[in-house]
Amino acid sequence: MPRRSFTGSFRDAWAGLWFCVTTQRNMRIHLAAAIIVLGTVWLLGLSRLEMALVVFAVSFVLAAEMFNTAVEKTVDLYTPTYHPVARLAKHIAAGAVLVAACNAVVTGVLVILPHLQALW
Predict the structure, then answer these.
(1) Which residue numbers are catalytic?
(2) Fold assignment, 6-119
């Protein structure tokens, strides 16, 4: 594969992100949740450390969803028909997204919930 320029690599990365957003329902769901959570964090005026924890958790979910999509597409390319190992690979990748999402929920509860409770 020929060496890519920095801008070419950046363009390819955006193309991958755009593909995930436009073709993957779960990516759109995670992205919508991320926008809501980050907006809430901004409105609550969390500390820089708290904001960093939430941003990391949100980014972790989005990256996991992108890796899941990459695994699914690679498996589909390699094995167009049903194969139990292909099914297992897809399930494992989906499980990684679940772990990331659970991490984000726990982070949200630990970081955001006390600020919301303080409002009431």
Answers:
(1) 65
(2) Helix Hairpins (1.10.287)
Domain boundaries, the chain: 6-119
Residue 59 structure tokens = 């980014």
Residue 115 CB partners (closer than 8 Å, separation 6+) = 44, 46
Distance CA 116, CA 95 (A): 30
Q: Please give the backbone phi and psi of residue 91, each rounded to the nearest 5 degrees, phi first.
A: -65, -40
Where residue 80 falls among pLDDT bands split at 50, 70, 90?
confident
User: SS3 for 116?
Assistant: helix
- Token pair for residue 112? 């955001």
Please give the structure tokens belonging to residue 78: 């390699």
